[in-house]
Each structure stands twice: as C-alpha cells, then as structure tokens.
Amino acid sequence: MATLSRPSSRCLRAIAAALLAPFLMASALPRAALAQPVGLPDLGDSASTELSPRLERRLGEAIMTDSEHDPDYIGDPAIRQYLTNLGGRLVAGAPPGAPDIRVFAVRDSEINAFSMPGGFIGVNAGLVVAAENESELAGVLAHEIGHVVQRHIARGLVQQKQNSLIMVAALLAAVVAARGNSQAPEAAMAFGQAAAIDSQLGFSRDAEREADRTGFDMLNAAGFNVNGMAAFFGRLMQLTSVNEGTGNVFTRTHPLSIERMSDMQNRARSVPQHSYTDSPDFYFVRAKLRVLQSGGNAQETLDAIRYLESRARDTTNGVERAADLYGVATGWMMRRDYAKASQAYMEATSGARDHFMLARLAVDLALAQGDTAHALELARAAYARWPQQLTLAYAVGESLQRAGRDREAVDFLREQIGRWSEESGFRQMLANSYEKLGNDVASRRNMADYYAMTGALPAAVEQLQQARRISKDFYEQSQIDAQVRDLQRKQKEEQDLLKRFQS
C-alpha cells in the first residue's frame, strides 16, 4: 500500500501537534516490529472485535470528511466522478463483500496512491498524469482496491494491536476536536494523519502480491488491458533504477520485485487479451490534473500550459488533441487570461469536437466574463445533453444563482439533492438561495445539513437551533427538535468511538 508522499505544511504542523507522542513511541520500535510479517494473520474474531468492516468504514468516513478541507484535496466534480466510476467498474469484479469504493484526487505531482480505512482511495495527480493509457491507471487503482478488498489495513492494525490503536485514537481525537471549528488547523490534517498511520503498516511481500492478484482479477473482469498493471509498474522500476539516488516514491512504498513483475506478466499471458479503447474522459481528466497539480504556482502552471500546447501540436489523435487544448484553456483560466483561454477552447472544439468537460469550460468562460445569461443557456443545453454528469448539474445551479434566479435555483437544487444525495455542495447552494429569497428557516436548515455532511456537527446543531428560534410553525419546530436530537446522538457515537479506541 502506498502512502501520501508530501502532506501540506498545514498537515505537517497538525501531525506534530496531534500525533507526536504516539509516533515517538512508534519510532522507538525497530522497523521489523512495525512492518507486517510475511504471511497475513487470520482475521477471525480478533479483527471482527477490534476493527470490524462497519467500524473500519466509520473510521474512513470520519477521516474523509475532514480530508475534504485539506488544501491538497481536489474537489472538482468531474474528476471525482470519473475516478469513483473507474473504481466502481473495478470493484464490480471483486470477491463478494467488497465495500463501496470512493476514489479522490490529491494535488501532488509525485507518482503515488494511498488507501484509507473503509474503501477510500487517494490518487496523486502525478500518477494520473504519468499513466500512458487508461488501463495503466486502472491497473494501479486495482492494486489499491486489492488492499481494500483483502482488508490489509484492518489486518495491519490488529497485528500491531496497542501501538496502532493509540495512533488511531490520536487520529480520531483530532478529527472529533476539529468538528467544532472548520477553520481549525486540525480540520486540514487528515491526509497527513492517514499517511502517517499508513507508513507504519508497511505491507509485506505477501500482502503486496495478494493485492496484485486481486487487482489483476478485477482488471480482467472489467475488460481492461491486463498488461496495464505490469507495464506501469515496470516503467516505474526502470525509472527507479535510472535515478537510484532519489528513487521513486511509488516503488519505495510498493516494494516491487522481479518476482512480482514476473507473476503479473505470467498471469497476463494466461488470459485472453482485451482490446480496450481509452475513454475520452481519461484524456480530459489527465490534462486537467496536469494543470491542477501545480497548485496555482504561476511558473508551474505556465510550464503545464506549454507542455500541453506542445503535445497538442504533435499528436494525431483528435480526442487527445482536444483534451490537451482543454488543459491549455484550463491553465489560462487559472491565470485569468480569458482571451487565451477562449482561443484554446475554440481550437479544442474545432472539427465538431465536443465533450462534457469542454461544455463546462464554456460555461465557466461565460461566467468569468460576466455573461450570466449566455452561461445559463450553455449550462442548460449541456445538462440536457449529458444529464448524468455531476459537474454540469453544478454548472446549471451556479449559473442560475449568478443570474439572480434563485427561485428557479431552489427548484433545480432540490431536484439535484434527490439525485445526488451525498453531494454536500448542493445543500450549501440551496441554503444560499433560500437566504436571498428571505426564507431564513429553510436557509439555516439546509446549512445545517451541509455542516452535518461535512462533519461539523456542533455547527449543524447551532444552525438548527437558530432555525427553531425563527420558526413560528409548531410542526416545523418538532421536526427541527428531532434533527437536533439525531445530531446529538451522532456526536455521542463519535465520542463513544473515541473512548473505545482509548480504553
């Protein structure tokens, strides 16, 4: 299992504050004592008692909720949806009982990926950028899902017992402490915490081999080119041998070997080869992440633009060219050069090329230049054509609000909440529209839902209490009282969860 290689400075400061004591204890142990031994322990009753699948999921959800406040988290809806859908295709071929997989991107240029408890998987932007085709990306993701499916995190925590549980308790303590203040440093440290715990679990060769084999089976069942995993790992091994001084973070955290490579290659030869064609989404997401991994650094963004411009000139593949020019336009948007962004957009759409991410870019260009009427027209047309694309639903909602059409926005956003129940952003947008319409009770209730979904339970309770004081409707007050009791129960459950790990 890989670890996040470069947590943000905010993460590092928070780790030092929250996890210093337990990590000092952990660092006093020899590495052999921290690494998982060859051969995996039988999960049996021990794992069920100490870290059941349900408890592991709860832990992952708690970490993930706060991870979304991390400045390195990439919340772009199109990227989130693409990666999670890719993970869903793979896990469909997993052994029975596999958890739901949620995949997200992290703003980091190093080639790496990491798993968190409960089926949450982070992928560095650099890994997607380095993949030459979609099967390679799917192969690495399948390996990470293999760790999740085989419950290697639970096994590692159970194996290390008290030392690991102390680290988990420290993590939960920081998560719970951050819930009352979303601006607290602790609210942006979860990636670093998860990575620090992850680094203590150093999986054995057997665990890595088991993840390879499980991942290979999923890759094959999903119809990808099964050579993708071995090809990507092999290229990273070569890169490491060429740059022995620094090495490669992926090969350090996933100790590759000739034996493992041979095993993957032999398995690839033993099954029928799939003729897989990369989806256009892969190219568009890869181009956007090449720009986003710069983190807003002016020179790095410009370097990404120049690289993508060069690729667009050299490629003969029409889809790749359009995607690279889309990346160029995205880069100029980040630099607020809308004239150059519009020029790149026009080049990307020449020859009747279209894609839902290009359609979203057109909306963003119109909004950036203050043409809200045109933005709304574009957003509605794109949403009608690609109704399953989350980013276009956001585009319609944002365009309605920017155009001052909040009554229409309320109807549209309520519809989207029914379709995308896990999207907290729609709740926040709905709260804003209700506020502009003067419906303070509905605004605060929806803001409470947003806070609850993002883990800020005390803030959610406060919003509900304000709504109750404003409301004059007995039945509405009763509903709010029930919501408050439910949130308070959830707060107690979190506290009990923390006590369980501390005891």
* Main pleated sheet: 4 strands, mixed
Secondary-structure element string: HHHHEHEEEHHHHHHHHHHHHHHHHHHHHH
Average pLDDT figure: 80
Identify low-pLDDT runs. Answer: 1-49, 178-189, 195-201, 242-247
Strand order of the largest sheet: 1-2-4-3
Q: What is the number of helices?
A: 26
Signal peptide: 1-35
Keywords: Hydrolase, Metal-binding, Metalloprotease, Protease, Signal, Zinc
GO molecular function: metallopeptidase activity
Organism: Pigmentiphaga soli
Topology:
Blueprint: H1 9-27, H2 31-34, H3 44-50, H4 53-67, E1 73-74, H5 77-91, E2 102-106, E3 113-116, E4 120-124, H6 125-130, H7 134-149, H8 152-160, H9 162-178, H10 190-199, H11 205-221, H12 227-242, H13 249-253, H14 258-269, H15 280-292, H16 298-314, H17 318-334, H18 338-348, H19 356-368, H20 372-385, H21 390-402, H22 406-419, H23 424-436, H24 440-453, H25 457-470, H26 474-502
Parallel strand pairs: 2-4
Antiparallel strand pairs: 1-2, 3-4
Helix pairs in contact: 1-9, 1-10, 4-9, 5-7, 7-11, 7-12, 8-9, 9-10, 9-26, 11-14, 12-14, 15-16, 15-17, 16-17, 17-18, 17-19, 18-19, 19-20, 19-21, 20-21, 21-22, 22-23, 23-24, 24-25, 25-26
